[in-house]
What we know:
DNA-binding; mainly alpha; TetR_C (chains A, B, C, D); homotetramer; elongated; 11 helices; Arc Repressor Mutant, subunit A; TetR/AcrR family transcriptional regulator (chains A, B, C, D); DNA-binding (chains A, B, C, D); Tetracycline Repressor, domain 2
Amino acid sequence: MTKRTKRSPRSSSVTTTRAATARVPKVASAPLRPKPAANRAEKSAERRAAIVEAAMEEFIARGFAATRLDDVAKRAGVAKGTIYLHFTDKESMFEELIRTAIVPLIGNITMAPPGGSVRETIERFAATFIQEVVSTRRGDIIRLIVAEGPRFPAIADFYFREVVSRGLAGITALIQLGVASGEIRQKELARFPQLLVAPAIVAVIWQSLFARHAPLDAIEMFKVHLDLIFGERRTT
Amino acid sequence: MTKRTKRSPRSSSVTTTRAATARVPKVASAPLRPKPAANRAEKSAERRAAIVEAAMEEFIARGFAATRLDDVAKRAGVAKGTIYLHFTDKESMFEELIRTAIVPLIGNITMAPPGGSVRETIERFAATFIQEVVSTRRGDIIRLIVAEGPRFPAIADFYFREVVSRGLAGITALIQLGVASGEIRQKELARFPQLLVAPAIVAVIWQSLFARHAPLDAIEMFKVHLDLIFGERRTT
Amino acid sequence: MTKRTKRSPRSSSVTTTRAATARVPKVASAPLRPKPAANRAEKSAERRAAIVEAAMEEFIARGFAATRLDDVAKRAGVAKGTIYLHFTDKESMFEELIRTAIVPLIGNITMAPPGGSVRETIERFAATFIQEVVSTRRGDIIRLIVAEGPRFPAIADFYFREVVSRGLAGITALIQLGVASGEIRQKELARFPQLLVAPAIVAVIWQSLFARHAPLDAIEMFKVHLDLIFGERRTT
Amino acid sequence: MTKRTKRSPRSSSVTTTRAATARVPKVASAPLRPKPAANRAEKSAERRAAIVEAAMEEFIARGFAATRLDDVAKRAGVAKGTIYLHFTDKESMFEELIRTAIVPLIGNITMAPPGGSVRETIERFAATFIQEVVSTRRGDIIRLIVAEGPRFPAIADFYFREVVSRGLAGITALIQLGVASGEIRQKELARFPQLLVAPAIVAVIWQSLFARHAPLDAIEMFKVHLDLIFGERRTT
DNA sequence: TATGAATGAGTTTTCATTCAT
DNA sequence: AATGAATGAAAACTCATTCAT
C-alpha cells in the first residue's frame, strides 16, 4: 500500500462479504462429510480456509512485507496461483485476514453474559479474553495490528470502528454501572476505559516479546489490577 | 564489473579552482572557518547522523522489511553506498538504530530526581515519559520494537535486559517505598510493576493507531490511573 | 516490496483464446502434438539446456567473476529469474556446469576400444581427444578449469578425483602395457603419465591463446610426440 | 575490456615506458640509503613497487575481475586513491603488471650460458625454469595469463610476441643444434618446439591445481622427458 | 602527493504476479 | 479451478573511480 502507485479496484466490500460467507469453521466442518466426498464448493472453501490459516501464521511470524506467498502456499498445501483465485493480491489478502480474524473476538466479547456484580462480569470477561487471546495465537494478531497498523490505515480504521470503539463503549457502560452501584469509587475511570484493558494489552505484548525471559501470569496480574479498581478482593 | 563506463566528472565544473581553495593544512584549518565548513571527521559524523535520522523515520513509517535503503539514502541526502560506510548491512543498521535510540530514554528514566512523595516522583516521571516519548517520535520506536521484536530476538533481548528489566526493577522499588510509607495500599502491586506503566504503553499504541479517530489525553489518563493506585487526588 | 506496480499483461494479446486451447489433460496431451509443441516438463528441460549452453559460452568467454547472469539469461532467451529456478546461485551454477561438462569427456575416454598395439590405442585416443576437445568448445572448459580452479577448490578437487586421477591411471596402465610388450623403451615413463598428455594440454592452451598468431597442428604434434616415446614411425 | 564502452586513451606505450623506468629492483634499492631519509622520487617508487607487488598477489589469487583495488591498496599499505597516481585504471594496471612481470623471465631465459652439450644446456635451462617459475609465484603468472588471456587479447599478443615466439625460436635453434650434433634423433621435433616445454607448462598447472592432492616432482619428470628426446641418460 | 570518504552504476538475488497447461 | 514455471521489476549490496582536503 505504502508505495503502490496504481491499485486495481479491490472492492473491499465485496471481498469482505466473500470472506464472511466462505469462512468455514475448520475443525467443525470435517465430520459433516466423509473426507473424500467433498464437492467443488466445499473443496474450494477448504482450500480457502487453509490459505487463510497459513497466511495468518506467516503474517504473524514475519509481518506483512517479509511474508512470502510462496511460503503461504506451501504451508497451505496449495499452488501459488491458487491464492490468486481467492484473493486479489497480497495486500488485500492481508487486510481481509485481519478483518476476518477479529470476527470471533467480537463474538466472544459481546456475548459476555450479564449476570452478577460488575466485578464478576469484568473478571469473567477478562478471564475469557486472557485465555482466548493473550495465551493464544490471536494475541499475535493484536500485535500484528499494532505492527502494521500505521502502514495499513484501512485496517486501523476498521479495527477502531468495529472493535475498539465498540469494546470501549461496552466497558464504559460497565464502569458506569459499577460507579452507580458503588462498586467502583473512581468516577473518572469512565473517562478512560482504556485503563481497564491496559493490562490485557500489556500482557499480549509481553507474551510475544518477553515471555521467554520472564513469564507473566496475566490472570493474576489482571486480578491485582481489578483490586486497584474495586478495592481489595476477598477470595482468589 | 569489467563493464563500467567512465565516470563523468561530477558537479565541480571548474576543476582548476580546486588548487586555489584547497591545500589548507588539515588540523589548522578548523579555526579558520566558523560553522558551515566542517572538517572531514565532522562531516562524516554529520552524514552518519543524517543516515540515522533518515533511517529512523523510514523504519518507523514502514517497518524493517518494507524500508528501502534507497529511500533512506535519498532522505539523508547521501548516496546509497555511503550507508555501507557506516553500517554493515540493513539488518545490523536496524539493530544498532534501535539500540542507540533508547539510550536517551534510559538517561531520562534514571535521571528521575528523588524528591517528594512516591506519587509525586511517579507523576513527575510519567509526565516526562509522556512528553518525551508518547507525544514524540520516540513512542514510535516502542511500537517498532513491538512490531519487529519477534523477528529480531536480539533486539527483544537487548531491550528486555537494558530497559524493561531495569525499568521494572526501579518501579518495583518505588512501589515498595510507597507501600512502606502507606501511600500505596495494594501490596500486591509490587508483584506486577507492569501495571503501573501499562497506561503509558497503551497511550503509545493509541497515539500511533487511533489518535486521529479519538485523541487521548495521556497525562490525564495517567493521573486517573494513579488515583486508582494512590487513592483520589485532591487537585487537578 | 510493497511498491510493485501492477504488471502489465504480457505478450499474449488475446487472453480469451486461452480457454479454447487450454484444458488438455496433462498426460494424454503429449501424443497429440508432434515435436514443436513440447509439454511442460520438456519445455523446462529445454530452457534449462539453453541456460546451461548460454552460461557455458559466457563463462568461457569471460570467466566466472566477469560473467553477468543478465547476459546468460539474455543469451538463453529466458528471464533472469528463470535461472534461479534451475540453480541456487551463480556459484553453484558454475560448479555444476563444470561438473556436467566433463561427463561426455569421461565417456569418450573410458570408451577407448582396446584393439591393436599400445601406440595405436593411444593414437586413437589422442585423435579423439584432439578432435573432440582441443578443436572444440570443450577445450575452453579445460582452460576454464585452469583459470578458475584455484578460486573453486571444489572444482579442482572434483576434477582431480573424477578425471585426472582416473585418466592418469588408465594411461599408466597403457604405458606399462607398452613397456611389457617392448613398444616403449623408457620404463620411467610410467612414473609420469602426465608426460604423455602434456602435448594435448599445451595444444588446448595454445588454441585459445595463440592460434590466431600461429596455428598449431595438434594431431601432427602429437604424432611427433609419440615418435619420441615409441620410436620413429614409418608412415605419415 | 570486454564490455567497457569508451576507454579513455591509455597510451600503452607510455605506460610501458613508465613501468620500465619506474620499476626499481625491490631488494637492491633498500641499502642505498638509510631507510627514513628517502626522497620524494624514491618514496614514490617504493609505493609503486608495493602496489605492483600487492596487485600481483591479488590478481594471482583471484583473477582480474574478482580482485578489489581496495584489497590491493590495503595489502600495499597505501590509500586507494594512490593507485590512481600510478595507474590509469584497473585494467591498464593489470596489463602493465603482466607485462613487467615477465621481464625478469626473459632475462633468465636469454641469459642461458651456452657451454656443454645440447642436453646439458636444456637441462640447465629447465632446472632454472622449474626452480624460478614452476616452484614460485611466477608460475601463477603463467596460469594467470592462461586464465585471462582470452579477455585481454593485448596481453596474449604481447606475451606471444615477446616471450613465446622468442622462446620457441631459441628452443628450435637448440633442437636443430642437437639434431645436427646427433644428440637428438627425432628431426621432426624442431617443427614442434612446444613439445620440449610442454612438461614445464603441465608442471605449472599441476602445481596450482593438484599439488595438494598429489605432489609432482617437476625436475624428475623433466629428466624423464629429456630421456625420451635424447635417449636414456646414464647418471642422475 | 597522498588520502580515504563519497559516489552511483552495475550486479546478484528475490518474489508478487501472470498464464499456458 | 488448480497448478507452478516463468517473468521482470525492485531491492540489497559492491566496488571502480573521483575529489576535497
